[in-house]
Amino acid sequence: MSQSYAMLKCYGSCSMSSVERRPQWMSTRMMLSPQVAQDNEELRLRTTFVALHKPVEGLYAMNGGDGLHSYAQNSSYQRGVVDVAKPIIQEEITTKLDIEQLSSTSQYNFRIADFGCSTGHNSFPAIQIIIQAIEKKIERERELQNFDYQVFFNDQVMNDFNTLFASLPPERKYYAAGVPGPFHGRLLPKDSLHFAYSSCALNWLSEVPKAVQDGTSRAWNEGKVHYTGAKKEVFDAYSNQYDKDITSFLNSRATEVVSGGLMALLVPAVPTFDHSETTYTTPTEMDVLGSCLMDMANKGRLSKAKVDSFNFPLYFIIPNELKAIIERNNNFSIERMEILNNPGKHSLRSANERASYLRAVFEGLLVNHFGSGIMDELFERYANKLEESSHFLDPDNEKSIIIFVLLKRTGDK
Ligand SMILES: C[S@@+](CC[C@H](N)C(=O)[O-])C[C@H]1O[C@@H](n2cnc3c(N)ncnc32)[C@H](O)[C@@H]1O
């Protein structure tokens, strides 16, 4: 590394006191001699050098590292999705994966990709489930040779890939590679992928719909940070953006996935767009977080304009809408579609645990817009609000769903 400036990105459990007080993802510009960097093993293991010296709008990821507020320590909710999907993925690989067809075109290299893998600890068990199921199938069809597996771990460029690579299971049966960049566009060569997977990631939009941030638009989302309880125009802008984004995702994967290849998607969703006073979903929780930001603006802790110009780039679809988008796209056949109830919701037993789960996911995004100074107060207010309304504390009132959909790449390519 060159002698001069190092762009240092510090993650959750970085032990140096000068950076300890910074938020997990925050970039800081430090003079770092090669000697100092070498001497500090902890620092070396927990840092990523990035070509950024300040937050850049639109670039964020889950909290990295494995510290208190890290995604790794606060994503038991998302882990539940892998667990509930396991038998279904096993069954679908057994019945729907045409090993003979794929091996004839791939020279016994089998390529898998996880789109939106974060730091990997939920991705690794999912990849293991997929490879074990393929191996079982090969075992049954004895004349077939074993595959060499290659796994592509994809996420946004700001993702903590260092933690992912440092945590790769030592006993893995695959060659691993990181693929940085937005999954709404092309990431891999044409006809290179045999199995695509994505869990808890396709609810993220490529961007906040422009109209909801435009003060002159009918869809301007004044005083709110998401579409729950907002004007119809706001909801429509989100819905249109989602349609565009999922279509781009499907088009990109259609080019990358070989004919006959499979794609297993686990999509965070809601059963209905209607709101209930006694139950809640992830979008409702985001609305509560937004109300905490508004409370802070009303108390002068931040400006109202700052809240007005912030919106979450996420959308939670209903099953029929997702089905319609996939059918319209026409590049994949729907082999199976099912609604799953995520057992992971029972792992969040208190308001503080719910706050930590949202913080691990949204802190990077929020710091990007509001700065790091308000984070502790914001999530404390959020936990307090949840405690005040009893229905948020019973996980059985959480009605978010996961849509499992297995797609097969159709057509001659
Ligand atoms: C809630 S996490 C899920 C991580 C992991 N799949 C799991 O189940 O624990 C969502 C992940 O999707 C990633 N993501 C969101 N939008 C993305 C995009 N456009 N391209 C690539 N990754 C994206 C986020 O950075 C994040 O790591």
From TrEMBL:
Gene3D superfamilies: Methyltransferase, alpha-helical capping domain (1.10.1200.270), Vaccinia Virus protein VP39 (3.40.50.150)
InterPro entries: MeTrfase_7, MeTrfase_capping, SAM-dependent_MTases_sf
GO biological process: methylation
Keyword flag Magnesium: yes
Molecular function GO terms recorded: metal ion binding; methyltransferase activity
Pfam families in the record: Methyltransf_7
Keyword terms, alphabetized: Magnesium, Metal-binding, Methyltransferase, Transferase
Protein family (similarity comment): Belongs to the methyltransferase superfamily. Type-7 methyltransferase family.
Protein's name in the database: Probable S-adenosylmethionine-dependent methyltransferase At5g37990
